[in-house]
Amino acid sequence: MDKKKSKRRRSTTDSSSSSDSSQEKKKLRKLKKKLKKEQRKTEKILKKKLKDEKHKLKKIKRTTSESCSRDDAETLTDSLPADIPLDLMERSKAMAPMTKEEWEKRQSVIKRVLDEETGRYRLIKGDGEVLEEIVSRDRHKQINKLATQSDGAFFQSQMIDRKHN
Predict the structure, then answer these.
(1) Integer Cα distance of 68 and 83 in angstroms
(2) Given CA atoms 145, 149, 154, 156 in this order, what sign does their dihedral have?
(3) How far apart are alpha carbons 123 and 130 in whole angstroms?
């Protein structure tokens, strides 16, 4: 019986050494996870501080532009800590998604743009959506006449270029 027990003990000691290494690996993984989590927390806190500072600066600028003179505004902005570079703040603003109001404001702009190939003016909404312009029958005929003339001029210029080449 002693022999069996001793064998068991040996086998358990062998397995315990392997389990020790696996336990160490688990501990290392947990530590890494903890470090990553803490890093994320600190980044989040820094972002929040940046946002708060930016908000404070905006408030100060608003109040200074309304009530204070330029000299007072300079002293107020100089007294604030400037540990965050301005280019970083601008870059983060550019990377941020648009709010609904910003998007609607951008889409509400309608421009009249000349299409050089056809000679027609097109209505372009926001970032590039082409709108159909509603015009009277006479205006429609006039637009088509101009477009036909410009098409003819373009065709002739192409034919002349081919003859010379």
Answers:
(1) 25
(2) positive
(3) 6
Q: pLDDT truncated to tens, each residue of the chain (165 aa)?
A: 555 555 555 555 555 566 788 899 999 999 999 999 999 998 999 888 888 888 888 878 777 665 555 445 444 455 445 566 777 667 666 677 888 998 888 889 999 988 877 667 889 998 888 888 888 999 989 988 988 888 898 899 889 888 876
Name the DSSP letter for residue 2.
Answer: H
Contact 128, 111 (CB under 8 A): no
Q: Give residue 45's Cα distance to chain centre.
A: 20
Taking the CA atoms of the chain, what radius of gyration do you get in angstroms?
Answer: 36
Q: Which residues, other chains included, contact 154 with Cβ-Cβ below 8 Å and sequence gap of 6+?
A: 117
Q: Rounded CA gap, 48 and 52, in Å?
A: 6
Query: Residue 19: phi, psi to the nearest 5?
Result: -70, -30
What is residue 115's three-state secondary structure? Answer: strand
Reported in sequence order, the residue ranges of 1-142 that DSSP labels E, i.e. its strands, are 110-115, 120-125, 129-131
Least Cα distance to 88 among 49, 141, 114, 41 occurs for 49
